[in-house]
């Protein structure tokens, strides 16, 4: 029952990843269909991100009141209905309308399931959880590509919506499995009282943690958005080859999370974060070095993906250990919000820097954020020491 529930949670995380790469795959065709500028994709993604940040900040209260399984079911239902709405949209404003429930569902399930796995499962299983998110992001572009070839972008959204409804059906059929980790009194998954944003920020070490997580997500998203442009503009490689290796960055993250899961229980979260940051820095250095061959820079993207792979799941998994199970849902919800802030606003900020200075700044930009991440996470470790103890007073005086 315990293992079967984990498989259901993995399936739910596939459902979280499936829609994430749909818009980017379909937008060149959708933009023509709606007769809007190419940049309008940013409007949709900003609405999604804004709603995701909002629901992440509210996730503690929702999970405390309803429990993880109810939040998971409701979130998958919201995303499935939203994707169906996308497929039926005949005007751009409709996309913006359906982006609201999609963002709300994505943020809630992300925070709730991350906390649930951090509380009840090992670091290995947390790494594999995020590996399955990567599986979802890899599958959906192929679905959209097939749909664009044979039917249209609407068919791609309908297909993914149908998959989401099937996953929803599995979740409903397996609701009794969630009793495997529920308290004996049947209470919701969150422990204790609702903390809220202000009280969480007063916990010693949390501001360091949030800044470090923000820095990591900023670096990851910046690589994903700008790596191909860097290879074309600086290394003068072909657009096709740059696109192929740009996608390998995400494949490297997905494969790296599977591989890191094999050793994470033995190495521990903190050591794996340090190793991942070091490997990622080597990959960034491969981009930076002015070598005559393009292959070190191309392979550098894969190395960055492999290095970055364990960092996100290890940061999440270590949260209950560092700050206590009763505080973890509140902290992880705010972590998700800080992650989306970093991934939403920092890549466009680099775009402005590239426009006004040069896209050659990319490796320097990434190194700055990796160093910021490492510094802040080490400050977190020094603050909490060997982990949370009930007798510790982690909350700063008001």
Write up this protein:
It contains 15 helices and no strands. By secondary structure, it is mainly alpha-helical. It has two domains: 2-177, MFS general substrate transporter like domains (Growth Hormone, Chain: A, Up-down Bundle), CATH 1.20.1250; 198-384, MFS general substrate transporter like domains (Growth Hormone, Chain: A, Up-down Bundle), CATH 1.20.1250. The chain is globular.
Short description:
Helix content is 80%, strand content 0%. The protein is an all-alpha fold and 398 residues long.
**Radius of gyration, CA atoms, in whole angstroms:** 21 Å
| CATH fold-level assignment of the largest domain | Growth Hormone, Chain: A
Describe the oligomeric state of these chains in a short phrase.
Answer: single chain
Percentage of residues assigned to helices: over 70%
Number of helices: 15
Please write the CATH class name of the largest domain: Mainly Alpha
Main sheet overview: none
* Average pLDDT, all residues: 83
Q: Spans with pLDDT under 50 lasting ≥5 residues? A: 183-188
């Amino acid at each position: 029952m315990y293992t079967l529930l984990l498989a259901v949670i993995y399936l739910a995380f596939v459902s979280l990843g499936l829609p994430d790469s749909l818009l980017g795959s379909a937008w060149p065709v959708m933009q023509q269909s709606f007769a809007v500028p190419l940049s309008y994709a940013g409007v949709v993604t900003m609405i999604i991100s804004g709603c995701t940040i909002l629901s992440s900040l509210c996730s503690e209260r929702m999970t405390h009141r309803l429990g993880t399984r109810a939040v998971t079911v409701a979130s998958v239902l919201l995303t499935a209905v939203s994707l169906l709405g996308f497929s039926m949209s005949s005007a751009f404003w409709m996309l913006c309308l359906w982006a609201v429930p999609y963002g709300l569902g994505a943020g809630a399930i992300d925070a709730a399931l991350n906390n649930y796995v951090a509380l009840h499962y090992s670091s290995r299983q947390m790494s594999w959880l995020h590996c399955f998110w990567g599986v979802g992001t890899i599958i959906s572009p192929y679905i959209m590509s097939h749909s664009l070839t044979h039917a249209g972008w609407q068919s791609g959204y309908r297909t993914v919506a149908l998959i989401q409804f099937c996953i929803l059906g599995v979740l409903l059929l397996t609701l009794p499995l969630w009793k495997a980790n529920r308290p004996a009194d049947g209470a919701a998954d969150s422990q204790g009282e609702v903390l809220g944003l202000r009280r969480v920020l007063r916990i010693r070490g949390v501001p360091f943690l949030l800044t470090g997580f923000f820095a990591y997500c900023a670096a990851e998203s910046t690589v994903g958005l700008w790596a191909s442009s860097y290879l074309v503009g600086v290394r003068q490689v072909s657009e096709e080859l740059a696109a192929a290796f740009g996608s390998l960055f995400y494949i490297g993250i997905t494969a790296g999370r599977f591989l890191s899961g094999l050793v994470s229980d033995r190495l521990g979260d903190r050591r794996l974060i340090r190793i991942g940051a070091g490997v990622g820095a080597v990959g960034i250095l491969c981009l930076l070095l002015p070598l005559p061959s393009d292959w070190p820079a191309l392979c550098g993207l894969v190395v960055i993906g492999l290095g970055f792979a364990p960092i996100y799941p290890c940061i999440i998994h270590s949260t209950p250990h560092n700050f206590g199970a009763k505080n973890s849902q509140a902290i992880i919800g705010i972590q998700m919000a800080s992650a989306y802030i970093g991934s939403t606003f920092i890549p466009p900020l680099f775009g402005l820097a590239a426009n006004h200075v040069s896209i050659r700044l990319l490796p320097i930009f990434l190194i700055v954020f990796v160093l910021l991440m490492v510094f802040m996470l080490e400050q977190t470790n020094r603050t909490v020491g060997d982990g949370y103890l009930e007798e510790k007073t982690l909350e700063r005086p008001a």
